[in-house]
Write a structure and sequence with these properties.
Layout (H helix, E strand, L loop, with lengths): L3 E3 L9 H13 L7 E4 L3 H15 L7 E4 L2 H10 L14 E4 L3 E2 L5 E2 L6 H10 L2 E7 L13 E5 L4 H11 L7 E4 L1 E2 L9 E2 L7 E6 L8 H9 L4 E4 L1 E2 L5 E5 L5 E4 L1
The chain binds ribulose-5-phosphate (5RP).
The site of ribulose-5-phosphate has 18 residues, from helix 2 and helix 4.
Length: 254
């Protein structure tokens, strides 16, 4: 893990959502007038959108605009009054702010349990600085410890691609993978595949006790599977991680 600076504790016991808000507000302090921002997706990033909207409406951040990482974020940012730009034509993205599902000691991330990993990786990978905002429950010893590692796949032949992903981890104890589904629509019996903003499906990979192999190698091998679009391991991308701790302290790790 990189160097960390901790702020003095905040008073009182905060809920997990309040911790998310604390981390988000701390990240927004990095925003300066005239910046173009990558706008993340999820409940933590939503607090950053709300705070940015407040500051914009107060006239404190002239010239700030954002590139949304999902349709949901696009709608939320528009409601809060953040001017929006498409990725193509945005020019330089100075800073992205987003949550994460997991953060390991080297600041590698799992993202995309909300389904937005592809646009997040495109936009956050294109920016100068990527600030990740989490409450301490997201800190893990190894990626894949607390739930699914998502992989976006094209719908054509998705069960075939799922099979190729399973083959990659053949024999690995505790590994399993499945297509993410959403509950059956009213009047229908079968669950439907979850569809991303890009019209793709998501394969969820589960590892007993996290991924113990070489993350870069696993990333390369996943991306070589024809049918895989992108995966939710964000390796070496975060430049700063802001952690709101249950004891009320906030750590800024670079
Ligand atoms: C969405 C993401 C989110 O950043 C991640 O799922 C964390 O979400 P939350 O802030 O709601 O805990 O990657 O694709």
């Amino acid at each position: 893990m990189g160097s960390a600076a901790a702020s003095p504790p905040l008073s009182g016991k905060l809920t997990q959502d309040e911790l998310k808000r604390v981390a988000a507000h701390r990240a927004v302090e990095f925003v300066e007038p005239g910046m173009t921002l990558g706008l993340g997706t999820g409940s933590t990033a939503a607090h950053a959108l709300d705070r940015l909207g407040e500051l914009l409406r107060a006239g404190a951040l002239p010239g700030v605009a954002g590139v949304p990482t999902s349709l949901k974020t696009e709608a939320h940012a528009a409601r809060t009054g953040i001017p929006l730009l498409p990725l193509a034509g945005a020019g330089r993205i100075h800073l992205s702010i987003d949550g994460a599902d997991e953060v390991d000691p080297d600041l590698n991330l799992v993202k995309g349990r909300g389904g937005s990993l592809l646009r997040e990786k495109m936009i956050e990978g294109a920016g100068d600085r990527f600030v990740v905002i989490v409450d301490e429950s997201k800190l893990v010893p190894r990626l894949g410890c607390t739930g699914a590692v998502p992989v976006e796949v094209v719908p054509f032949g998705a069960p075939h691609t799922l099979g190729l992903i399973r083959n990659l981890f053949d024999g690995l104890a505790g590994f399993h993978a499945r297509l993410r589904t959403v509950p059956a629509a009213e009047g229908k019996e079968e669950e439907a595949p979850f569809v991303t903003d890009n019209g793709n499906y998501i394969v969820e990979m589960f590892f007993d006790d996290g991924i113990r192999g070489d993350l870069r190698d696993i990333s390369d091998r996943l991306l070589r599977i024809t049918g895989v679009v992108e995966h939710g391991m964000f390796l070496g991308m975060a430049t700063t991680v802001i952690v709101a701790n249950k004891d009320g302290t906030v750590a800024v790790i670079n």
